[in-house]
Amino acid sequence: MPWMEKLFESLQEMMPLPDGLEILPASQIPAPRAGLTFVTDEDPRPLLPVEPVTKYHEATLLVNKRITTDRWYQDVRHLQFHFKDPVTWNPGDIAVLHPHTHPDDVQALLERFEWIERADVPIRLSRTSTTGHAIPSHVLDHPTTLREIFTSVLDISCVPRKAFFEWLVHFTSDSLEKEKFEEFTSLSEEGQDDLYQYTHRVRRTILEVLQDFRHVSIPLEYIFDVFPLIRARQFSIASSSRYPTVPIHPTTNSSSSQQDKDETDSIQNGQLSDGKKEKEGVYLDLCVAIVTYRTKLKAPRRGLCTTWLSSLKPPPLDSSDPFPTVRETNGDTNEKQSPKTNNPLRIRVGIRRGALRLPPRPKPSQSSLKGDVIAGVQVETSNEKENNACTPVICIGPGTGVAPMRAIIQERITQGETDNTLYFGCRSSSQDYHYSREWEAHAQAGDLTFSVAFSRDQPEGERKVYVQDLIERDSARIWELVGKQNAWVYISGASNKMPAAVKAAIRQAAIAEGGLSESEADTYVGKMEWEGRLFEECWS
Fold first, then answer.
1. pLDDT value at residue 7
2. Strands 377-379, 233-236: pairing kind
3. Are 66 and 75 in contact (CB under 8 A)?
4. Among 306, 350, 360, 8, which Cα is nearest to 157's?
5. CB 509 within 8 A of CB 479
6. Cα distances (Å, whole numbers) of residue 55 to 50, 348, 354, 506
7. Alpha helix locations (H) across 93-188?
8. What angle do CA 6, 9, 15 make, to 5 degrees?
9. pLDDT at 279
10. Rounded distance, CA 283 to CA 247, Å?
């Protein structure tokens, strides 16, 4: 792009480099940022990555259960983790996980560069340069292996960026490959379009690129320059740490058996299956959609973290200890593993404070200081609930957006706050209706009012129904809660048309039921957002 070249020239004239510094020519290879030394007299140790403002805890995976039917196009999992420590979090807080690359992909990369013989030999890393992105400190602390680095540190499953090809220019021995890399990294419109078509449009991974260009040979000391780091993934926690959760230990991951169906029903009910004992500690739930889709490439595209999560196996029912202390292996063959699988059972889960806040609670009266105790959690009795007026909440969470809503509802139930409304949306009442029996049980107990939009269950030719349509239908009740009782509204899900449509439905309720003009309704909803009474947690 000629204008960018002119811009750089002008910037150099306006702000020349300090004395002693000069721009390196494109043909010169920068010095590597890491040094690698093989240390055969030391044992490798698992790498434990960390994220800022995140507190980590060791957890045992108890449940990894598909909660959509086998014939449904999307695999959605309910995962439950057990903490022995008294871990606490608030609704809206985030679980931070560090995924692992699939072992087959790691093996393919090691074979591609003929690193197999050295893949499991202990190595020590050191910093040799401070330029570029920093090498994670946890990689420098202990001996590790190449296999471990490409399993848990360096990402070979993401779509490569332009900088990746700028490095490959230096490491190919083939003139045609070098010409193609230079084209990808040029500032020309044609080169940028070619790069987009080759990588981003079809979501081609780094591993697939390296398998296409067979003359590329990357020196070991440059791996931290060429490959990006694996990013931590964040998931909305789908449970309250204060809710009297009853753990579930499924016997199998096959959803075809009747026993397995019973286990799924137990998840929906939040109940314990026969013959399984509750264990002291805290239970954290996640509701995760497994990412898989197709492009023009033959192999389906898969999300790194959700593919890893879907492969994790909980302990079998016949284990002598249903809560085995098994550390995450991270490639360390000395770690204890399940006798039936090589997948780790023990996982480090980070918890990070979220932005969501619950309405302030009314100050309890002296008579409400006592209440029922369920599974060690004090819950207000029905008489005390009636005496303590609470701020209503309206939760709108279609699909896996229901995860933080489930945490909110559970938290408020433990606090004796029963003015809870849920609008859930999915495609089919028989295929992807997450936690259906749980909502029904809460409604029967008087703790929840809920409505569900099944967008694909309407007769052919009829208009599809979404959560915003239910809110429009219930406009009188919505305005009673929002306009008269100052309800707080929470929206969670995909950041498509849904969040804007939900806010439009609330504005329409303010106009139709509250008598506000369009501008007044816009101002009212904007004020709700400003005050924190309307909160969005949406993703693309």
1. 83
2. unpaired
3. yes
4. 306
5. yes
6. 9, 10, 13, 37
7. 103-112, 137-141, 146-152, 162-171, 175-185
8. 135
9. 59
10. 7
Give the CA count within 13 Å in the CB-facing half-sphere of 331: 29
Q: What is the pLDDT of residue 301?
A: 96
**CA neighbours within 13 Å on the CB side: how many for 252?**
9
The per-residue pLDDT for 529 is 96
CA distances from 484 to 340, 487, 526 (A): 58, 8, 17
pLDDT score for 317: 52
Check: CB of residue 58 under 8 Å from CB of residue 346.
Answer: yes
Look up residue 499 and give its DSSP letter. Answer: H
Distance CA 159, CA 367 (A): 60
From CA 212, how far away is CA 181, in angstroms rounded? Answer: 12
Q: Which residues of the chain have pLDDT under 50?
A: 248-260, 262-264, 266-278, 318-344, 367-370, 372-388
> In Å, how far are 21, 467, 489, 490, 498 from 536, measured between CA atoms?
48, 15, 9, 6, 11
pLDDT on residue 329: 34
- According to DSSP, the β-strands at 346-352 and 393-396 are unpaired
- Please report where in the chains the tokens 């590329």 appear, as a residue: 216
Tokens of 491: 């929206």
Listed in order, strand segments (DSSP E) in 361-454 are 372-374, 377-379, 393-396, 420-426, 449-454
Give 480's DSSP letter.
I
